[in-house]
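Hi everyone, sorry if this is the wrong subforum. Our group has a chain we'd like a structural model of before ordering constructs, and none of us has done structure prediction before. Sequence below.
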Amino acid sequence: MVFKAFYAFCIKLDKLGQILAFISAMVAIWINGDERVPPKSSQYIFPTMLVLGGLASFLDSLRGEKSFGVYKAPSAGWNSKDTRMLNRIGISRYMGAFLFLVWAVVLTVCVVLVNRGNQNTYLQIFEVNFRIGSLIFGGGQVVLPMLEDEVVPSWMTKDQFLQGLGLAQSMPGPLFNFSAYLGAVYRGVPGAFVAWLGLFGPGILLIFAVVPFWGQLRHKHWFKCSLEGVNSTAIGLVGAACVILFEATVETRADAMTFVLGLTLAVVYDVSAPMVVLAGLIFGAIISDYALSLGQVSYCSSNGFVKP
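Answer:
Right subforum, don't worry. Here is the predicted structure as tokens:
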């Protein structure tokens, strides 16, 4: 399902977007697999890549017809002169600025308290999720590499993380609901609620904080062009998630067979996510050691590439 999302995003990218996605994917894979890089460094590296991606697309847009990217004019609809939509939502600029301030204060206070050694488990759960939710653009699969860096192995094993991801993919709703599973594995129902609130909180606050200013921002050339680069860089993080999760889950030929089945159902036949997960479960049970015992050998054996 993560591969499907990456494919759907990539086919819409222009030349510059493909380059930015490639670079961000390479960097994310590198910091995830290099023991010399502290896991928490992702909280600085990922946002920095997003900012640099936005800057790259803005500078490219200044090249005019020679630019690598494709920059479309703002579409018709809600704009800076038509305030009907803004009035219907009912959020003033002062309220938007206040919500932005609330987000900044909560993020700063949580990070400072945890970094100064506060041992409250629920504060730590909230801080991890609120920080990640604040620093990641795009949501969904983009958040997976950073979440894995933070919670494995301190909160749970890699197998538990991947099992929860499969469960979250099989359920309706956004992938951010995965946070509730992570919190529950670590600290039960209270942990689930705190983690869920932490990951969803920044997006909710920032959406309503930006609404009063969106009518004007969406018509700013620099803002629209910068978003193209930020989006492309975020897509690269989804590509990194594909590589990281594939390496973690496909250990036997049977795993590879199940992956091919799931990818075919999702991409070629557009089967819904819950049905893909269910099909993988049934197929995996049939070929497992308890039934037909097919493909139960290492995917990367000594006859080929050796898996580290």
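For your construct planning: The two ends are 25 Å apart (CA to CA). The chain has twelve helices and no strands.
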